[in-house]
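Narrative summary of target 7.
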Amino acid sequence: MGIGQAIIMELFFASNALYPVQMMPQALQYFSAVNPMSYVVDATRGLMITGDLTNLLVDLIAIAVFDIEMSILASISFKRMI
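Modeled conformation, tokenized:
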């Protein structure tokens, strides 16, 4: 659990949950663009708080692509264990 929390903590702080992406240093802005947590936060904010659904399709596609990639990597890793 500790390793998972360490990974999630970094993804959370590098997402747009706490600070706008425009206020981040340039390196974090690039990382935020590929950070799946940024898309989760943006979709949640649009659905629950602001009602702005203009980026919802992009957010859902980014989340789905990340989930598919991780599922494939997990199945490959699981097959190697067996």
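DSSP finds four helices and no strands in the chain.
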